[in-house]
Amino acid sequence: MVYFGTGEMQVTASHTRLMLLYDSRNDDGIKSFFQEVHELYINTLLNPTYLPGS
């Protein structure tokens, strides 16, 4: 994949990397994206029916 934009990355406490690539910077949108994705990630890990690696 070739991409000529800009990106942001967040690393969770469990060393999972979340990356966002974008063409135009919107700080509020970037912050909102990472908050929502992190919340979904945590909810998935806390789900009692989730099997790690599945």
TrEMBL record:
GO biological-process terms attached to the record: endoplasmic reticulum to Golgi vesicle-mediated transport
Pfam families in UniProt: Sedlin_N (PF04628)
Superkingdom, natural source: Eukaryota
Classification via InterPro entries: Longin-like_dom_sf, Sedlin
Transmembrane regions listed in the UniProt entry: none
A GO CC term attached to the entry: cytoplasm
Name of the protein in question: Putative trafficking protein particle complex subunit 2
